Amino acid sequence: MAALRVFSRNIPYLRQQFSALLGNTSPSVKFICVVVIIGYILSYSDTVVNVLSVTPGFLLPPSFQLWSTFTFWFLEIHLWEVIIDIVTVGLCGKLIEPLWGQMEMMKFFFLINVGVAFLTTFYYLVIYAWTQDTSLLFDIHVHGLAGYLAAVSVAVKQIMPDHLLIKTPLGKLTNRSLPLLILVAAIILWAVGALEGTYPCMWGSGTILSWIYLRFWQRHSSGTRGDMADNFSFDNFFPTVIQPLVRGALSPASRCLARLGVCTPAPRRVTLALSPRGVTISLPGVEPHDMERRRQIALKALSERLSKTSEQTRQKNLTTKVNMDTVRKMQASHVIPQFSTVEVPEASSSKPQSVPETTLVDISTEPSAPTTKTS
């Protein structure tokens, strides 16, 4: 009851935040968010879950329920999944859709979801062939946007690979390592019983399918296909230490797929061209818009670093000035001796001799009359 009261009090704030999030998004993003909310309401019925979700045994012949591949994605049964779906789709829609366009965004959405349905079914079919457990085919229900969220994380990695998310004691977390990190976390949560087994399967399927599409098949405005940049290779998803092992294990498969025409081999030539501004160098797999985007990111990072350095220098100069003022105040509080001469007669001589007279002058901040002592 206490949690329900807290949630009810925060409803106006949550409504305001969601309105700000979806205020400037396109109709396609709003449509996805509204349909996900409707699917969550319908998920309270077990019959609706069985009908709308993908069941691996029913997707295969003789049932062949292909229509479930177009309905399973908006069916979420947990509120936290609905919130994550809406926030991710809204934020990434503002980031990706201006670069790709609305049609390309919706094409990417439907291709990934349909592919996730078939690839996840293939996973369970392989596990069934190994274990002969029929419950894997008829008691498993694949639903949700986990595969599409994985695809979006791969697209964000392609656009901003080195964007810093958070600093940890083990190192920096960037968009480059986000897809694999979430997959490992999902597998761990499934192993301890905190997450359904379909979630890591869908996340892995979405990661693989989105990388294949963005790497080889996506058509750009310049007429080219894919992104053959070195920092978007499949081994780049893994930590630097094991990248050579992954590259060596996948190179035979990539060569076979290239011979079959499924994917194109990476170009190995560098194009030089003369322009009014000088010599233009075109690297393999790097598009002009990608180069401009990375240049802007580099300039932003350089500007942040220079501002940080100037701030540190200003703080250092301010500290030095404060220290000098403290030293001057300490010196002003001391007593400085001053000497003068007075004439003292002697019995043995008629000429006066000079005897030093000590005058102690206090030069502190408060004015006071000098004290003179004669010895």
From TrEMBL:
Biased composition (Polar residues): 347-375
Keyword Transmembrane helix: yes
SMART domains, sorted: DUF1751
Protein name: Transmembrane protein 115
Protein localization: Membrane
Domain of life: Eukaryota
Membrane topology type: Multi-pass membrane protein
Keywords: Membrane, Transmembrane, Transmembrane helix
SUPFAM superfamilies listed in its UniProt record: Rhomboid-like
Residue ranges of the TM segments: 21-42, 77-96, 108-130, 136-156, 177-195
One Gene Ontology term from the biological process aspect of the record: retrograde vesicle-mediated transport, Golgi to endoplasmic reticulum
Pfam families: DUF1751
Annotated GO CC locations: Golgi apparatus; membrane
Residue ranges, annotated region (Disordered): 338-375
PANTHER family documented for this protein: PLACENTAL PROTEIN 6, TRANSMEMBRANE PROTEIN 115
Keyword Transmembrane: yes
